[in-house]
Structure formats: C-alpha cells, structure tokens
Amino acid sequence: MFEYAPAPESRSIVSIASTYGLFIDGDFSDGKGTFKTINPASEEVLAEVAMAAPEDVDRAVAAARRAFGPWSALPGAERAKYLFRIARIIQERSRELAVLESLDNGKPIKESRDVDLPLVAAHFFYYAGWADKLRYAGFGTDPKPLGVAGQVIPWNFPLLMLAWKIAPALAAGNTVVLKPAETTPLSALFFADVCRQADLPPGVVNIITGAGDTGRYLVEHPDVDKVAFTGSTEVGRQIARSVAGTGKRLTLELGGKAANIVFDDAPIDQAVEGIVNGIFFNQGHVCCAGSRLLVQESIADELLDSLKRRMATLRVGDPLDKNTDIGAINSAAQLAKITELSEIGSSEGAERWSPPCSLPDHGFWFAPTIFTGVTQAHRIAREEIFGPVLSVLTFRTPEEAIEKANNTPYGLSAGIWTDKGSRILAVADKLRAGVVWANTFNKFDPTSPFGGYKESGYGREGGRHGLEAYLA
Amino acid sequence: MPKSAPTAKPAPAKAAKAAKAASVKTEPAASNGRARLAVRKTYKLYVGGAFPRSESGRTYLVDGDNVALASRKDARDAVVAARKAQPKWAGATAYNRGQVVYRVAEMVEARAAEFVALGVPAAEVDAAIDRLVWYAGWSDKIAQVVGNANPVAGPYFNLSSPEPTGVVGVVAPPSLLGLVSVVAPAIVTGNTVVVLAAGPQVAITLAEVLATSDVPGGVVNILTGRAAETAPWLASHDDVNALDLTGVTDPELAADLERTASGTLKRVLRSRGETDFTVDPGLHPMTALLETKTVWHPKGF
C-alpha cells in the first residue's frame, strides 16, 4: 500500500458552542439537565446538550401544534420557497456541516462531504418542488397534511435522516418535533440554526435532544398525529405497540441483514468494489448494508482472495483525514456490540479474518472483518451487527441463493452481481426486499423510495412514494 | 385471551332473511302430491381449496344451521395453505389474476338467487358483482398507477413497482358486499388471504363460488366462527404479513389485535368504524397490502 501523508480537513470551519439548548418555537431553551456528546474518534467532549424532560416535549408539541394551522394554510408555493431556501443554505454551509458530522459521528470526511451533505441538500430540493404539486402526486385530488409529526432518528446518518424526515413532512404541510440520536445531536441543532437563517416560522420545526425516554414520550404524546422512526427493529416493535389503537399514522424504517449475491459470471473486480462499499461504507453502520455475502461456490476462492487484497488497502483512522476509508465506531456501546457478536462468530466456528491494520489509541475502532465458513444457523448470519463485519456464505444454484437471501425476518435491501440481464430481473423479482441493487450497491437518491419488507418496517421514504406517509 | 374475549357479533338475523332461508329449506309439495324432504347444505370451512370441518369438531348454531366453529389450529392450517399458494398466485400474470377475479364475478351473478335466498338484498348482490368486476380490472393497472420510474441523479435505471405483501389475515365484515370488498383487493394484487368471516352462510356460499371460479386452492381461505377467538392467533402468527381489521367493530379488540400484530411488525389495515361499502373504495384497500420494491441498475456501454 502506498504511504500517504496525513491530509486532514480543517476543523476551523465549524465552531461548536460549549452548550446547546432545545430548539422549541424558534428559540433555544434549557432542558431539565444535560448530557455530553463526544467525538468517537478521540473521546473528546464536543458539547453539552440539553436533556428534554416530558414537560419540554409537551412544549415542543404545543409549539408545533400552534404552528400547524398557519403553516398548513400557506400556499404550497410559499412552503416550497422556504424549503428551497433551506436546501440552498445547506449547500452554502455544506463543508461546515460535513466537518461537524464527521466530528460528532466518526464517519470519514469523504463520506460526509461527498455523500451525506449532497444528499441532504438534494432531499430538501426534491421535496420543496412537491409542496405546490401535491394534488398531482397520486394520493387524491385534495390531499391534506396530518398535523404534528413526531420523528425519531438514528445516529448513523444524522443529518441525512433528519432530511428524510423533515423535508417531506414540511412539504406536505405538517409541522414536526424531531429527536436526534443521543450520540449525534449536533448536526440537528445546527439545522435549527439553518431554519432560523431561512426565517422559517417558529414552531414549524422543533428539535429536542435526549435519550430513549425522550423519544418514547414524544411518540406516545397524545397530540402527535404521525410518528416516523428510523432505528432498531426492537424499538420499532415497541413503537408499533404503543401506537396501536391510537389512530396515529406510523412509518418505520428498521434493521436489515441484506444479502449481496455474487454469481459466477459477475465481473469480479466490480463485485469486490460493491462488496466493500456494501459492508464497509460508513463503518457498516448502515441498515441496508450488504452484511451477508452470498457467493457462488465455483468462484468463492477467487473472489475471497480478491476481496482480501482489496480490504488490505482500506485505511482506518482519523475521520477528518481525506484519505480515510473507515472512520470511528460511533460509540463505546456499539463497539461492544460489534465485538461481542464477532466473538460469537468465532466461537460458533466461523473463520475470522482482518487485514493487518493499526488502530488509533483513543476512540472507538474496529478493523474491517470477514467471516468465512458461515452457515445460516450462525448468529452472525442472522443478527444485524451494524459494524464493518461481513459474513460469507456460498451457494450453488440461483434457487439456493434466493432461498438463503430470503431466509431472514428482515427485508430491507439486497444486491445482485451478474452479467446476465434475465437473471438479474428474475432474481430481483423473487427477493423479498424493498431496495434491490443490481451490479451496484448502497446507492441513494431523493427521488428513489427507500424502505423495507417484513420486519424491516413499513412505509417508504424518498420519491413520490415518500409523500404518502405525510398526507391524509 | 381468545377464550375470554368477547365474541364477535354474528350476522344480523333479519326477519326477511330467516323467512327466505326457510323457504329454501322446506320445499313445497312435489308434483306427485307428497312433500319432498329437502337436502340441506352442510356449512364447513374453506381451506386450501377443500371444505373441511373444523379440526376441533365444534359447530355453532346460526339461523338454524350448524356451522363449523373454527379453532386456533384451523387458523394455522389456513395460514399454511395461504402461504403455500402465495408464490404461484403472485407469480401469475396480472392479466391472469384479473381473469380469475372476473370469473368470480360471473359465478356470483350465476348464483345471485342463492345469495338472495340467504337474505342478501338483490341490490347488494349486484353491488358485490360490480365490485368484483371493478377490482378485476385493477389487476394489470395498479402497478402502473402506484409504481413509477425514478429520475435519480446518476446513470442508473431505477424503477419502483408494487408487490404483494404476502399472506393477509382478514377480519371480514358480515355483509356480502363487505366480504367481497375486503377479499378482492387483497387477492387481485397477488396476496393470499385467511378470512375470518362474520356471516357464515353467505361466506361459505361465496367459498363455493370461489371453488368453481378458477381461484387456485389456498388463495382464499375462509373460516367461520368467532373472530375474537381466532383473530389473535392470526395477529401473532409469524407467517402472516398483514392484518385487515375492517370487520372489527369493537375498538378494544381492534387495538388489542393491532398491539399483537406489532410483535411481527405486520402491516395493519385499521378498521375505521362503520365502513360504507357502497362508495368508491379508492386505492387504499389495495395499496395497504402492497410493498414497494425499487430496483437499481447502472447504465453504460
């Protein structure tokens, strides 16, 4: 591997305050306590953030309720202009937000800069254009907003998940109370400032920070009309249970255990790039990660040799270094979970391999890892690891590949690698997954609906389909 | 829970219905002057294309008929039958599914008198037939209306298409029009169903229609009995993908079933109080039971 000199992105573009309050009704205010958010690459404390208590959630929902009437009564074209403004401000402050995201989340700057932020701006731009065209979207000639949306988002793509939640909600005329994840609250709080810069009316967007209890109180709040959640399947079940019988609308985007299927006629080098992108993008903290590699037996050895060669070139380290491929694991808790499941993989008999790579002394790190000799009974083939860990299984026939791919309660995404068009279409038809990437992987676009089958949740985010969740 | 739960209300026993039913059962004097003894119908379940009795051996009395009282195990058998039939039914062409649903309409038309004799108003039978014809036509159009190409910012082919969610548990309303209005949207889109019927004689007569309409066995399975007893087993069943609660009138039972369904993250079509089945149902009964699959492929020479 070539030696690279360090190429760190400057931190000076972002100025982080020492404390942040809750963004309610257009202003920041204190909560009932605080918690610290840290840089997972160094464990340095970045800021203290307010912990929203139930009465703070009440205030936020009340603000959103007051704002709902005027906001939903605005002509769609006017709502659109606010969203276009937000999209533009995000583009203008893109580098600042990218550095902030990498600091708080641990993801490599090249991903926050080239993937997250461009998609965030594009998402607002896309839904801005829908605001005055809702009656053409195919959900009735006079579609109406639902009211106040309570939204809870995860830590893996903090600002992008915020965009997926807020952009369609606002375009459709709803107001929102959004809770970012406990370990990555900062970009949502900076987004609050973006809203102020855009002169968005107070109360249309409210950001409350806190942990699981805050989120639970928000989704169970009686004055919330719609709940949108992205996160683990376990919490998704609890939310579905708590919403039952209330009449609230609900969309859930939950876990996954995607199969990435490589047939014997696939171009190996391209497939290897797709496999690496599929599982090591964003440290594998991706619900649609291609975490189960299904490779046709006849090419398994050749493919794995090639994959290992490629993995040895991955650079693990400082998220702000522009050459970094794999950044920091988001939290100590997530690192513990990845470590535990990987140890179970070894103890259940799968063969573990990682390229030689030195990891920094501070912060949370996990070397890119593959397990071979994995069977469908192994826990690492069944459970979502949410880290840079790939389980490799083999198959002989397309039927066997499909059977194995679908042998999971999840159904979020899948990958197919083959040169044969008819096989792509036949296999894509039979995969029980909401997104199927053929000869590519982990591609996202604001126009393209995203969401799962089975226990990966319900509802779609993105595209025309994504409007349905916010319209009556 | 199922045993102590309140029992579902049986179909309203209207006086007119009873009178008409009686007229079918006791035939008038035969031409030779002697009274002919009627051959009565046995109302059994409809599972996997066959008409079995309840494995429990139980029956209950509805308007003078001993009707099969379905059990938990019947519900599970019906789910197995529905799952087995689902891939082939979903894999049939939309054109073919439309033809089959249209055939159901033809067969209801042919047996209209039988439904009227069971107390279904003639206008309702007509409406049910028309509803079936309406849904038959949707089979090869729904994908065009709710699916679309997505203009992604890159050299990719990207297409979103609807697919059936799989096996749907349906708590059906008692009327024929209501029953048809919940079954047709589920099956025309490629799902298979386990129906907990509220009006047993009407539902089993519809099953006889289905059995003679080219509907493959297992696509529609109909259980008679107490929804409050069997529905929780469908709601908790790991191999049921969605639950249609249109026929549940008790809000507490509906909430209970929705809570139970959350364990496996089923799609739930909630009951919305009294549904007016005479109005245009819109797309929701179909789209609630559809998934959206988005397929990406690079473009390039």
From TrEMBL, chain A:
<feature type="domain" description="Aldehyde dehydrogenase">
    <location>
        <begin position="33"/>
        <end position="471"/>
    </location>
</feature>
<dbReference type="InterPro" id="IPR016163">
    <property type="entry name" value="Ald_DH_C"/>
</dbReference>
<comment type="similarity">
    <text>Belongs to the aldehyde dehydrogenase family.</text>
</comment>
<keyword id="KW-0560">Oxidoreductase</keyword>
<dbReference type="InterPro" id="IPR015590">
    <property type="entry name" value="Aldehyde_DH_dom"/>
</dbReference>
<dbReference type="InterPro" id="IPR016161">
    <property type="entry name" value="Ald_DH/histidinol_DH"/>
</dbReference>
<dbReference type="InterPro" id="IPR016162">
    <property type="entry name" value="Ald_DH_N"/>
</dbReference>
<protein>
    <submittedName>
        <fullName>Aldehyde dehydrogenase family protein</fullName>
    </submittedName>
</protein>
<dbReference type="Pfam" id="PF00171">
    <property type="entry name" value="Aldedh"/>
</dbReference>
<feature type="active site">
    <location>
        <position position="253"/>
    </location>
</feature>
<dbReference type="InterPro" id="IPR029510">
    <property type="entry name" value="Ald_DH_CS_GLU"/>
</dbReference>
